[in-house]
Every structure is written in structure tokens, then in C-alpha cells.
Amino acid sequence: MIAVDALWTFTVMVGLLTLTPGLDTALVLRTAAIGHRRRAWGVVLGIQSGTLTWGVLTSAGITALLTASELAYQTLRWAGAAYLVWTGGRMLWATRRPGRAAASRAGTEHEAGREDDASTAAGTGTGDTFSGGWRQGAATNLLNPKVGAFYVALLPQFIPAHAPHLAAGVLLTGVHIALGVLWACALIALAHTVRDQLRRPAVRRRLDRVTGAVVAVFGLRLAFQD
């Protein structure tokens, strides 16, 4: 179906892509660091659901229409950019609230717990729920047309002409998803080991500011980069 050397080359390429620090890494780390493991896994599987969707659509030839249509690409690009800037902006805004500063000064466990919930709600709209994380991860991935363009450019190079395109494309996408889940396991384990330090109110504010800035910058880059 797919030559072993081609499959290995594809694995190395998407593996390097997975390890490259980016928006997905920032979202998973931030969510897991504040102790919201259910939500963190929701983000992970939401991202991978988006990856599977892009892979299936590309294998079926549908995403080629996205790259061929300037209007479709630009519409999705601006929608994705607006979503990321809005998400990052809400996270940054939450760190400026007086209530958060008061919780930091008090330093009580109850207030820190309330701060965790307020911060997560600011970034995503819900608390420590798997479904909320899944929606965030899926939206982040599916509203990024560059992921679709990447698959359009990459997948056909590794699918033999005589092979069934849909099955071969799903196989390659599955490799990408497996690597993404393995990397997410490492990130969540790392966040869990330093969770107590990262849940301190002052550290949490800095973490939220960094993550919010990363998300917003990705949105701005998506909006203004060709």
C-alpha cells in the first residue's frame, strides 16, 4: 500500500512538526499545569479530531477546494485569527482583574482554586470539563487553514497512485495523530510534576499571560501572514 521508506520519511517529518513548540503545545501545557487533566485530555483529543478531519478531507480531495478558492481560504483564515485573538485576549484580560490580585495576596487555597476556575473560564468558557477542552482543541485546529494547506501539500506525496487515496490518507493521518498523543502524554506528565509550583497565584498569572500572548500572537500571524 505505502512503501516502508515513504512511511518512515512521513513519520520523521510529522514527528519533527509535532515536537516543534507551538500553539498546541502551549494550550496543552497550560491546561494540564493548572491541574485540569480532564480538560487537558479534551484539548488533546480535540486537536487530534481536527487533524483527523483535515486528513480525511484531504484524502477525499475536498480540501484542495480550500487552497484553490481564495474566498474560502481567506474566510477561514480570518475566522481562525479572530478566534485565537479573542481566546488569547480573554486570558490576558483575566490576569488584570482585581479579584485575581486579591487572591494572590491572600494566598489561600480556596481563593487559588477560585482563580483556577476563573482563569480557565476566561480562556475557554468552561471549567475542568472534557467537552470544553475538546471544543477548544477542535476549534483551534479546524479554524487554521494552514493545517489544511499543509496536508494538501504533504499527503499526496506519500500516497502511491495505485493505492486507495482515502485509506492511505487516513493511515498517514493516524501516524500523525499517534505521535501527537504520545507527545501530549509527555507534556501532561511534565506539567503534573510541577503542578504545585505552577498553581501558585503569582506563577499562574505569569503562565496565563505567556499562554494568552502566545495564542494571540498566533492569531495575529494567521491574520497578517500570507
UniProtKB/TrEMBL annotation:
<keyword id="KW-0812">Transmembrane</keyword>
<feature type="transmembrane region" description="Helical">
    <location>
        <begin position="41"/>
        <end position="68"/>
    </location>
</feature>
<dbReference type="Pfam" id="PF01810">
    <property type="entry name" value="LysE"/>
</dbReference>
<keyword id="KW-1133">Transmembrane helix</keyword>
<dbReference type="InterPro" id="IPR001123">
    <property type="entry name" value="LeuE-type"/>
</dbReference>
<keyword id="KW-1003">Cell membrane</keyword>
<feature type="compositionally biased region" description="Low complexity">
    <location>
        <begin position="119"/>
        <end position="132"/>
    </location>
</feature>
<keyword id="KW-0472">Membrane</keyword>
<feature type="transmembrane region" description="Helical">
    <location>
        <begin position="166"/>
        <end position="194"/>
    </location>
</feature>
<feature type="transmembrane region" description="Helical">
    <location>
        <begin position="6"/>
        <end position="29"/>
    </location>
</feature>
<feature type="compositionally biased region" description="Basic and acidic residues">
    <location>
        <begin position="107"/>
        <end position="117"/>
    </location>
</feature>
<protein>
    <submittedName>
        <fullName>LysE family translocator</fullName>
    </submittedName>
</protein>
<feature type="region of interest" description="Disordered">
    <location>
        <begin position="103"/>
        <end position="132"/>
    </location>
</feature>
